[in-house]
Every structure is written in C-alpha cells, then in structure tokens.
Design a protein that fits this description.
Layout: H1 12-62, H2 67-70, H3 80-95, E1 98-106, E2 112-117, H4 138-145, E3 150-151, E4 156-158, E5 161-172, E6 175-185, H5 187-231, H6 242-255, E7 261-268, H7 271-278, H8 280-298, E8 303-306, E9 311-317, H9 321-336, E10 339-340, E11 343-344, E12 347-353, H10 362-406
Antiparallel strand pairs: 1-2, 1-6, 3-5, 4-5, 5-6, 7-9, 7-12, 8-9, 10-11
Helix pairs in contact: 1-5, 7-8
Length: about 400
Amino acid sequence: MKTTSHSAPLSGAERRILLIVTVAILATAVSIFWLFYHYVSNGVSRTALESSDALFSYVVRRLPAESLLLLNKPEDNRQPLYREVQDLLKSVRDLTSVRYLYTTKLNAQGKPVYVVDGLEEDAEDFRHIGDLIEPEVLPQLRICLGGKPAHADKVLRTDWGDILPACTPVKINGKTVGAVVMEFDASLIAGSIRNALSYSLLVSCALVLLFIFATAWLLRRLSVPFYRKLAYTDLLTGINNRNAFELDVKRMREHGGQDGMIVLACDLDMLKKVNDLRGHAAGDAYICALARLLTERFKDRGETYRIGGDEFATLLPHEDRQALDDEMRDLRAIGSATLVESFPLLFAYGLAVFDPTRDTDLHSTLTRADSRMYALKRAQQRARAEAEPTDREARGGAAAVTTQHNL
C-alpha cells in the first residue's frame, strides 16, 4: 500500500511543466537551427564573394572599357575587340571557379543586356550581344549599373543552377558605362549547406525528443515522487497522513484488497495534559512517540497513518484478530513504561475487521474501530478518576502522620 506510483498519470500541473519545457526546448532547437543556417549561408557567401574582389580588379584593369560602347549588336562578335574581351573572360574562367563571366550594359530602352559572354560560343547557355539579362540577377545588376559594386546576400536558386552573383561597374571618365558580372557555381556549396542543415535538423529533432523523454522521466522519477511524498506525508511525524489514508482506502475499494483487512485505531490519552503542563513542543514529542511505536511494530505488516491531531489508523491485511488484540495489550504496556517529557505514553485502541455485510468500505470499518477505541478510552478515564481519590487520601494520611510525629 504505497502512496507513490511511477505508473500513475502525470497531474495537470506536471503536464503543464512538461509542456513548458517542451516548448522551450523546441524554441531553442529552432533558434539554433536558424542561427546555423544564417551563419553558415552567410559565411559561405562571404568566402566565395570575397575572392571576387581580386578577380574584378584583374579583369577591369585589362578590360577595354570602350567595348561596352562599341559592341551593340550580334554581328559585332566578329570584331577583334569582341574577341579580345572574350579571350580575357575565358582565361579568367579557366583559372577560377567562376561559372559565368560576362559584361553587360543598359540598352536603348534602359534594360540590362549581355555584351560579351565568357562562354564558348557553342555552349548551350551562351548569350549573344543584346540578349536580355535573366531577372534573377537584376536586383544586384541594377545597383552595379548605378555605379556601386554589388553581390547577392545568399545563394540564388535559378533555372540554370545555384549561383552566387557579384558584379562591379566599369567606368569611363567617372561615368558608368556597364559592368562585369561573375556568377559563382554554388551547387556544391548549396548542396553541402542543405545536407548540413538536414543533418542538423534531424539531430535537433532527436535531441528535442530525447530532452522531452528525459524531462518526463525526471518528473516521474524525481520531481513527481518528491511532491507526491510531500502531499502524502505527515510533516510532524514523517509517516503517512490523512491524504495517504484516503488514497489507499479508495484504491482498495476500487481494485480490491478490503477483504480480511483489520483496521486499528489509536488515540493518545494524555495529550491535553502534556500540552497544558509542558507546552506544545512536548505535546508534539508525545504524538511522535506513538507514531514511532506503531510504525516500528507494524512496518513490515501494514501501513500506519496519522489521520487527526492525536489519532492514528493502521491497516493490517490478513492478521489474526485475537492475536492482534493480545499484541496491542502488550504494546500498551510498553507505552505505559515509556516516559515522554516525564509522562507515560498512554493510548487507547480499537480493532475492527472489514465485513462486507456491514461495511461499505474501510471508512465504515474505521468507524467501528473508533467506537471500540473510545469505549476503552472512557473505561481508562473512569479507572484513573476512581484511583485519584484513593491516591489523594493516601497522600493526606501520610501527611497527617508526619505532622503528629513532628508534634
């Protein structure tokens, strides 16, 4: 008859604690995942694009800027100037990880168009003079054609693959006449980032599940038993309290266990006198003494509960009632010989066996045990009251003899 159970469902408060911890863990995992994605993506982008500065410096120094003014239609690709620029761009592409390298400018309608493409002319995605620039790179390109270098903040997913675009303006006498554009192949980078993110997401989910399981386990194994023990333990004596008694009675009524149960009710006889003459601290010690006496005697045979101020109940399964009655008389004798704050530990008791024909549950059995206990208590009080005049007369006679002797 234990009052704590690891198989019992979590209470409402405990479920709220678990929910709060779960939300906190999920929020932490999402935050870490986002930070990882943000910094990895930005780090990769910066690493790739920082190398573009040296390449742009090299290309712009060798690029004939007038080519952006003189090359205007597809037929101009036969001019030596076109070949000169294309050879420059091809050589840079061959020596670097740049996937696309080309020059661009605004056409008569103000739209960005290709001028010289650094790809081989028989390449599938080769662009001719005057072809419109794809819209994916236009945001950076318009900044560049406005006179400022620009690059993408992240990998762009396009119809021709994952790229990191960057561009720098080309100027004549301080006036922007076009731009050089580099598109780094980011498919390997993007794939690595996606794989890393996928693995980190899986790990994060696994950790979230692990932490949720660990939290639930800790609630059941540590926190929950602690608070349940606190709820079902009498703080003064350290034994089971009334809540524990009610819980165990309910369990036995619902799941069986009442048949053959003996209910032992005990009540202190002199608690008020101890409190009046020695104070409440002495009264507490008097209560604790009876709690120890009962729990030490029945610790391996049943459960003892403090169900009131100086009232105790013990549930004893499958005991012999007559043998238990004899044992309790002996236990009362032990209590009488035990002094607590100079007072003998006097108590009354009553026994009752659960009877399904008379008792609805163990509360009814306890009521019958209480009746027998109070009957014994009243008999003991009458015996003490009858003995007190005799004691006073004896003390008075002794005092008279002493006085006469002195005279």
